[in-house]
């Protein structure tokens, strides 16, 4: 018996009258009845429920007919997973400790990608060719998914962690970094849980299910602003690092025809963003960025080692001083929360990374999340302590700028930092593109022209803005105070409260929402106030 499909069931009539029912061991074969008179028998030829007729009776369509007819375009609400890896019988029986639960949201991907390859998009002759195509699509193992998530976390924000400790104070900075890591870890996993509870296959869809059109607008705006702000920030970093490194490595480069343009900030941004980041942005599958993410993580490890080693070798004359507030609790706690939040928020990438897993289960994704946030917290803690304990009250927003410009090891770290931003920028472009497609073109099949137009416009517009400003601090602070807080501390717990019954977890979610709202309001007022007063305002790069 094939138990994979949806079967039609018929009941065998029971015996009636006063005569005792014949048994299975009766001598007369015609008198035999089943040992279980009311048992259900299954039709060995599976049928698929098609819908309901006006009088309420179910209509059915054979599986073979559905494969070859246009009726499959009207299937509503039925999702058939043909990969046997997802439907082993053990999935229904083994739920003990250490066992993977049955995959959740097995069809989840970037929505435009999933639609582009679904059997209802008209690209494939039948459902079997679609299944084969899905198996051939690039997918991530746990290691590759970890690389993508860790790279999304350990981005430009890591370089500002020493400054966050200066703003918050050493003691409160350590507590904040650990506490916010735990909260971020929980809310990342909460996004997948919320998607399962709501039946939506995207962060946007979940919030829309919970709060309607206003929720969709809020999450779309938060996701897009955070990702696009990251793209701009990464472009600024490229312009602030690579030209200076090239000039230090090759002092006469400025006088070399054509190549000398690379020592100019604007020319370097254009060449490297369009030459490296833009081609990576054109990929449709985030899994293909795993190797680039691996190189980016190696670069960040070089930066970490550089700050630790050069911090020890820094002369006492270049070191900073420490006061009691700097060692305990300082006045810039909320600003520090914004900087740390900007570094750790990767919620806009979480479902894309979940969908890239070869076997997308909540257990496997949780493992990736815990490992990624744990390693990221360790890296941030090390660079924060190394930088802050070296420069104290002199710590800058970019700790690499505290070191001399002619330091060879630091220049190598600057080069790695700039190259890391080039490979992280496409991850943010993925998010911007999917947000726009989900909002303006929901349910549309993949369109290559639209894909190219959106990808190009996003990269070019972010590049233009990065050419116009050098103020990386304002980008970090404002984006971290608004969209980062909304995505990490407000929207995921709010959706969880909406989708679940009251329990101790909902009270935890309520506390996180209250915390996020306070941080958003206070940090935003502080950031806007500094801009109005001209403190850290946008500067033009000539």
Automatic annotation (TrEMBL):
Polar residues composition bias: residue spans: 54-66
Membrane topology: Multi-pass membrane protein
Compartments reported by the entry: Membrane
InterPro entries for this protein: AA_transpt_TM
Sample GO molecular function, one term: L-amino acid transmembrane transporter activity
PANTHER family: AMINO ACID TRANSPORTER (PTHR22950), SODIUM-COUPLED NEUTRAL AMINO ACID TRANSPORTER 11-RELATED (PTHR22950:SF458)
The protein's name in its UniProt record: Amino acid transporter transmembrane domain-containing protein
Source species: Cryphonectria parasitica (strain ATCC 38755 / EP155)
Lineage, uppermost ranks: Eukaryota, Fungi, Dikarya, Ascomycota, Pezizomycotina
